[in-house]
């Protein structure tokens, strides 16, 4: 922890106190964002709270303390998901859920995930200040391992809650240190068995709404603090191994080489051009690559890499995945290396229901904000839940569209306006 680090100070220095009304406190939100940021703080002033780590667990425990102080009844499932429940005037009605996650990518930012959790909690704090009780039960939720940085297979907690996690595949996963999923879960007091038992009766839930930073520039370009998500792209994660033959860099003639990195390099370069052939909203990214044996004077014998493929349209996303695998096969044959392929995550896109977008639009207008709809290229827990329940999302403006780095930033003015919109939206349910 750095004595110079003070996220609260940076957030509050430009805050307009006029946004403190109806029980919402910008100072409280900023202070809690800071306290969470101290857990797993990196030398670059980023966040290091990998899914199912002690740091993620510590962040959840801190949030649980705040939930209890706000009067919420706490429950935890076998995947480590946390639920803080406030009973409605009619406790028999299905609940409205809101929240996000507290895990991060390696050396990530301090808003992606925590802002959604704390915004949902701030709604409860505001109600407590005025003695308001909603008509329907309300739950603040913290999902486990949304980012998926540890096992290259994210949205883990929401998949467990909805019963869509492949338990057999989950049990086969290992992290970068060679630890199995079971070992990692045991380290935080859970197991594969508890994970399999995390499925919730979805009839208990009416809808889910998630607040998240935009991770793009559209709101900034339109000078709007908050926007409505119109649809969420479905991510697919692909694992490729290119297997050649390691050899001495000096003694192996160029004509006799089976260089796995040459194959991987051509593959990566070609992937860059493929998405635009299928859809304007399709994207494909190679963000993780490992070379073996990784010696300066050794011909690479194996390269393992991961491809992230996304689109808001299911058909073109699937066509792109098929084309990427064909490209791997073509290059492997041409360069006389082998390839292996496995899909570790495939989630269909989710459109946001029109009636929920209308509700969000009305909530924005209540606070003098022009409603704007925009797509989400990133996957979120709302994406998983949206295949089974009506979901909605609010985006909060991101400075320069930066995310997943220590430079990630959303002003406190924008964050608090997001809380007000969320609060009005949730109060519209009866």
UniProtKB/TrEMBL annotation:
This enzyme's EC code(s): 3.5.1.87
First-tier enzyme category under EC: hydrolase
Note on cofactor: Binds 2 Zn(2+) ions per subunit.
Top-level taxon in the UniProt lineage: Bacteria
Protein residues bound to Zn(2+) 1: 101, 112, 212
Pfam families registered for this protein in UniProt: M20_dimer (PF07687), Peptidase_M20 (PF01546)
Entry keyword annotation includes Translocase: no
Keyword Metal-binding annotated: yes
Cofactor section: Zn(2+)
Similarity remark: Belongs to the peptidase M20 family.
Name used for this protein in its record: Allantoate amidohydrolase
Originating organism: Halobacillus halophilus (strain ATCC 35676 / DSM 2266 / JCM 20832 / KCTC 3685 / LMG 17431 / NBRC 102448 / NCIMB 2269) (Sporosarcina halophila)
Taxonomic placement: Bacteria, Bacillati, Bacillota, Bacilli, Bacillales
């Amino acid at each position: 922890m750095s004595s110079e680090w003070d996220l609260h100070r940076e957030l509050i220095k430009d805050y307009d106190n006029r946004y403190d009304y109806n029980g919402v406190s910008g100072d409280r939100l900023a202070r809690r964002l800071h306290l969470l940021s101290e857990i797993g703080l990196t030398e670059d002033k980023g966040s290091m709270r990998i899914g199912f780590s002690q740091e993620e667990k510590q962040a959840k425990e801190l949030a649980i303390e705040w939930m209890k102080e706000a009067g919420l009844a706490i429950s935890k499932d076998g995947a480590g998901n946390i639920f803080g429940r406030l009973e409605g005037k009619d406790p028999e009605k299905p609940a409205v859920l809101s929240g996000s996650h507290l895990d991060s990518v390696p050396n990530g930012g301090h808003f992606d995930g925590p802002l959604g959790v704390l915004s949902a909690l701030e709604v409860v704090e505001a109600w407590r200040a005025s003695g308001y009780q909603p008509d329907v039960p309300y739950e603040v939720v913290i999902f486990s391992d949304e980012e998926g940085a540890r096992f290259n297979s994210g949205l883990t907690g929401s998949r467990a809650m909805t019963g869509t996690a492949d338990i057999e595949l989950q049990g086969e996963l290992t992290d970068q240190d060679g630890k199995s999923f079971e070992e990692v879960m045991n380290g935080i007091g859970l197991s594969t068995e508890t994970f399999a038992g995390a499925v919730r009766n979805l009839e208990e839930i009416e809808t889910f709404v998630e607040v998240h930073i935009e991770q793009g520039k559209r709101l900034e370009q339109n000078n709007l603090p908050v926007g409505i998500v119109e649809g969420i792209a479905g991510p697919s994660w692909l694992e490729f191994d290119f297997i050649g033959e390691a050899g001495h860099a000096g003694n192996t003639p160029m004509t006799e080489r089976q260089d796995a990195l040459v194959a991987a390099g051509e593959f990566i370069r070609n992937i860059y051009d493929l998405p635009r052939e299928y859809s304007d909203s399709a994207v494909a990214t190679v963000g993780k690559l490992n070379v073996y044996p990784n010696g300066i004077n050794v011909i690479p014998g194996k390269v393992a890499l991961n491809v992230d493929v996304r689109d808001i349209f299911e058909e073109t996303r699937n066509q792109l995945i098929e084309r990427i695998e064909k490209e791997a096969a073509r290059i492997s044959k041409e360069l006389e290396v082998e390839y292996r392929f496995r899909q570790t995550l495939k989630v269909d896109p989710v459109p946001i229901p029109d009636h929920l977008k209308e509700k969000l639009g009305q909530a924005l207008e209540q606070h003098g904000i022009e409603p704007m709809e925009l797509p989400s290229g990133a996957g979120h827990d709302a994406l998983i839940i949206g295949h089974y329940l009506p979901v909605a999302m609010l985006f909060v403006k991101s400075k320069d569209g930066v995310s997943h780095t220590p430079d990630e930033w959303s002003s406190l003015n924008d964050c608090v306006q997001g809380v007000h919109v969320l609060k009005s939206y949730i109060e519209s349910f009866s």
